[in-house]
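Each lists sequence, tokenised fold; shown next:
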Amino acid sequence: MDTNQMIIIVSLAVAAMLFSAVLYLRQRARRSKPEEYDLMEGHEFEYYCGELLKKCGFQEVQVTRGSGDYGVDILAEKDGVTYAIQCKCYNAPVGVKAVQEAYAGRDYYDRMVGAVLTNQYFTQPAMEAARKLKILLWDRECLEDMIEDAGM
């Protein structure tokens, strides 16, 4: 067996392991029971996230009004950095639209950072859009870490 064949075999093995890990994580996520925040409706989740951000050291946390909020649910500040945050309480991965809303809202409210905070994960196109538009993505793991840090 020559070097090129060995590289191909090793690459395929690594790809198979990564694919298996992704499948395992998806299955594990489906098996886990819903958390309290998974059962909330939109505005309830926004207020929950607002309280969570306060307990995580954010200041001047303001939940915006429901309609006409220009894609932003929470305005906040931490360590001199201003944030425009879009909250999404979904039962499926969050797509590009949420990233676009955070981008538009960040500029409308003249904030330094735009973010999307969700109880789920993000689609690959959403992650690519966020990278391009410089929007922070706070997924379920980040939410759980924040909840743990806040002692909620």
